[in-house]
């Protein structure tokens, strides 16, 4: 069916534009949400859509539809829309290249998963948390299957498919007038999520965060747990966006070949990673996936580009033209960001420090300068290599570009949250401001 749609669109576009791109997206989704411990939202849907981009006289036009009876009209609309845009010779579509196999992105279990089984899975997570003495403030489960086809006038024809599963849980607990909250989530390409383990870990975190103690304002060795690390790293990675670089919105402009991070750190954008949540054989505009070394041994190696931005910059796409769905055109976005450290530290080596599970306010960090001031959440003192008292409200401040010069990896499990694949991180001499 998906190829028949592409053929019909090609017939409508050929001889009517200089170049065309056909993007077809099919998805199946199961989504559940609870408010407190009661399931209040359940959705099971199948969606199909078509996005058309054309180039005429260096002008690009875009149109989309979810009605497959409107293919001809959508193609005509894209051609008309091109006339409304300015000429820009940087518009182009992907070329034919050899495709690499991507493994570990599809779970056949999705085909047997139904809404009832999904509900039971989430109810088990909720019951586990409740039995642990926690009050559930919210939880959710999702399972999805996606399939896309990109065909263009350069002869490109690439199909992608994959599955994804996710579980999230937030809880609160009260004791002697004190209140603590906690949250965590897990995602996988496979339906191998351990909801019971997640529920127990979240409840344990909430319980251990109850009897907080104040902390003196000082510079500390700070361990950034996964959520805390990814919250701050989003600002750092924004500086690798090729468009930000060209517009002068990146502090890393003109720093290629210069050491910008700890020499023990390398960062790879890897859309070919087996089992990666953002792995695929091509990006959202049909550019064949390839690994990109962003930082190698602390030295800035590359930025990320889609085709349009790469053409403007006089370079080649890094296959980072992300497409959320048929409703949108491609835009620059990372895939699986592997943070690899040649050396790892152990928490036992920290005499006096702070561990923060997450940070509040990371979105307020200055994307250009990198300055940030965030609230530590579910934070604990580290004394003689061990976690001790939970900490009262405290602020952590610094500059994300400066801390990357001294960041170290901890000898912990490597996990993926969003684009980021990393261990827990250790930053020396970070300012922690206690609040009494």
Q: Would you tell me the structural class of the helices and strands? A: alpha+beta
Please tell me how large the radius of gyration is.
Answer: 24 Å
The DSSP helix count reads: 8
Helix content: 10-25%
Shape from CA axes? Answer: globular
What is the number of independent domains? 2
For the largest beta sheet, what order do the strands appear in spatially?
3-2-1-4-5-6
Low-confidence stretches: none
Order of helices and strands: HEEEHHEEEHEHHEEEHEEEEEEEEHEEEE
Q: Please report the total strand number as a whole number.
A: 22
What is the beta-strand fraction? 35-45%
For the record, give the distance between the C-alpha atoms at the N and C termini, rounded to a whole number.
64 Å
Biggest beta sheet summary: 6 strands, antiparallel
Folded structure, characterized:
- This protein is an alpha+beta fold.
- Helices cover 19% and strands 40% of the residues.
- It folds into two domains: 2-205, 2-Layer Sandwich (PmbA/TldD fold); 212-436, no CATH class.
- It contains eight helices and 22 strands.
- The strands form four sheets. It has a six-stranded antiparallel sheet. Strands 10-9-8-13-21-20 form a six-stranded mixed sheet, covered by helices on one side.
- α1 (2-13) packs across α2 and α3 (115-131) packs parallel to α4.
- It starts with a helix and ends with a strand.
- The relative contact order is 0.13.
Compose a concise summary of this entry.
The chain has 436 residues and is α+β, with helices and mostly antiparallel strands. The protein has helices spanning 2-13, 71-82, 115-131, 195-208, 226-238, 242-246, 307-313, 400-403, and strands spanning 19-35, 38-56, 59-65, 135-152, 157-175, 178-188, 218-224, 265-269, 292-296, 299-300, 321-322, 331-332, 337-341, 344-345, 352-360, 371-383, 386-390, 394-399, 408-410, 415-417, 420-422, 425-434. Strands 3-2-1-4-5-6 form a 6-stranded antiparallel sheet. A 6-stranded mixed sheet has the order 10-9-8-13-21-20, covered by helices on one side.
């Amino acid at each position: 069916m998906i190829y028949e749609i592409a053929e019909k669109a090609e017939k409508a576009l050929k001889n009517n534009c200089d170049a065309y791109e056909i993007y077809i997206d099919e998805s199946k989704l199961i989504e559940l949400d609870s408010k407190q411990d009661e399931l209040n939202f359940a959705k099971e849907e199948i969606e199909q859509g078509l996005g058309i981009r054309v180039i005429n006289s260096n002008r690009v036009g875009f149109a989309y539809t979810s009605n497959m009876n409107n293919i001809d009209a959508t193609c005509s609309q894209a051609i008309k829309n091109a006339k409304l845009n300015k000429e820009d010779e940087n518009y182009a579509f992907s070329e034919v290249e050899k495709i690499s196999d991507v493994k570990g992105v599809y779970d056949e279990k999705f085909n047997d998963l139904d809404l009832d089984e999904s509900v039971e899975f989430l109810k088990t997570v909720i019951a586990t948390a409740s039995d642990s003495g926690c009050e559930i403030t919210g939880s959710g489960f999702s399972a999805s299957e996606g399939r896309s086809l990109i065909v263009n006038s350069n002869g490109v024809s690439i199909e992608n498919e994959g599955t994804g599963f996710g579980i999230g849980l937030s809880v609160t607990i009260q004791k002697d007038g004190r209140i603590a909250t906690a949250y965590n989530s897990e995602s996988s390409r496979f339906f191998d999520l351990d909801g019971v383990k997640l529920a127990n870990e979240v409840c344990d975190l909430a319980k251990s965060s109850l009897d907080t103690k104040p902390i003196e304002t000082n510079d500390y060795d700070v361990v950034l747990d996964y959520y805390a690390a990814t919250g701050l790293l989003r600002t750092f990675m924004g500086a690798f966006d090729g468009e930000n670089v060209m517009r002068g919105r990146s502090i890393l402009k003109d720093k290629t070949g210069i050491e910008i991070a700890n020499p023990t750190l390398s960062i790879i954008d890897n859309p070919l990673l087996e089992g990666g949540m953002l792995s695929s054989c091509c990006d959202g505009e049909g550019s064949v996936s390839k690994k990109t070394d962003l930082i190698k041994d602390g030295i800035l190696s590359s930025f990320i580009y889609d085709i349009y931005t790469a053409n403007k910059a006089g370079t080649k796409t890094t296959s980072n033209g992300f497409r959320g769905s048929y409703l949108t055109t491609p835009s620059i976005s990372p895939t699986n960001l592997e943070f690899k450290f040649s050396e790892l530290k152990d928490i036992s080596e920290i005499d006096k420090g702070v561990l923060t599970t997450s940070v509040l306010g990371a979105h307020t960090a200055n994307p250009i300068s990198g300055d940030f001031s965030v609230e530590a959440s579910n934070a604990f003192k580290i004394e003689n290599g061990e976690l001790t008292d939970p900490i009262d409200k405290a602020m952590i401040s610094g500059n994300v570009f400066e801390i990357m010069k001294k960041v170290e990896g901890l000898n912990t499990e490597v996990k993926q949250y969003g684009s980021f694949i990393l261990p827990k991180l250790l930053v020396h001499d970070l300012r922690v401001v206690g609040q009494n």
